[in-house]
Design a protein that fits this description.
Blueprint lengths: L1 E5 L6 H12 L2 E4 H10 L3 H11 L6 H12 L8 E4 L5 H14 L5 E6 L2 H15 L6 H24 L3 E5 L4 H12 L2
Parallel strand pairs: 1-3, 1-4, 2-3, 4-5
Helix pairs in contact: 1-8, 2-3, 4-5, 6-7
Bound molecules: adenosine monophosphate.
Length: about 190
């Protein structure tokens, strides 16, 4: 199974991604996590990404596209992958489509988790108290939400027009939301 998982910050993408990874034996590629690892390792990519990430801004498309094509080429992705937090812009979605075509790994579904914006900010402020993430503060959270609606929401239309989009209500218990996703992908 080859999946893109989308949704505004706080919609529960990471949690649902971990469950999907387990159930379907997928390689889970979270661009946020990969970038945070690069920063920890003090790599050149990490350095370039950090200035954007600390402000809650998007890291430039070319950096993301190169990083993800390199990663998707790894044969471990042949058995199925789950992209979490990528693509987040139209150029990323278009670039990804070209890479996947080239690698013969085209997508089965783009799953979008949706939820009310206020509920999401509330969830993220709570998470910020425990996560220690530098971008889980109220101001940066609001900026990340705006970026999502401005740059990432159009990606939903991109996948809708290709008949790949599945929209799922992200409000409810973790199990409830997971069941909704499973029902859709196993239909
Ligand atoms: P996340 O963990 O998915 O919330 O990502 C944390 C931060 O990493 C984002 O606020 C961006 O700065 C950066 N990032 C992650 N994925 C992408 C992407 N696909 N495009 C641009 N920036 C990204």
């Amino acid at each position: 199974m080859r999946i893109v998982l989308m949704g505004p910050p706080g919609a529960g993408k990471g949690t649902q991604a971990a469950l999907l990874e387990n159930k379907y034996n997928l390689i889970h590629l979270s661009t946020g996590e990969i970038l945070r690892k690069e920063i920890k390792e003090d790599s050149s990519l990490g350095h370039q990404a950090k200035t954007f990430m600390d402000k809650g801004q998007l890291v430039p498309d070319t950096l993301l596209l190169e990083m993800m094509e390199r990663r998707l080429k790894n044969p471990d992705c042949d058995g199925g992958y789950l992209l979490d937090g990528f693509p987040r812009t139209i150029p990323q979605a278009e670039g990804l489509a070209v890479s996947l075509d080239k690698l013969d790994l085209s997508l089965d579904y783009a799953i979008s988790l949706f939820a009310d914006e206020l509920e999401l900010v509330y969830r993220l402020v709570l998470r910020g108290k425990n996560s220690g993430r530098s971008d889980d503060t109220p101001d940066v959270i609001r900026d990340r939400q705006h970026i999502y609606w401005e740059h990432t929401a159009p990606v939903l239309d991109f996948y809708r027009s290709k008949g790949l989009l599945k929209e799922i209500d992200g409000i409810g218990s973790i199990d409830e939301v997971f069941t909704r996703i499973v029902d859709v992908v196993e239909k």
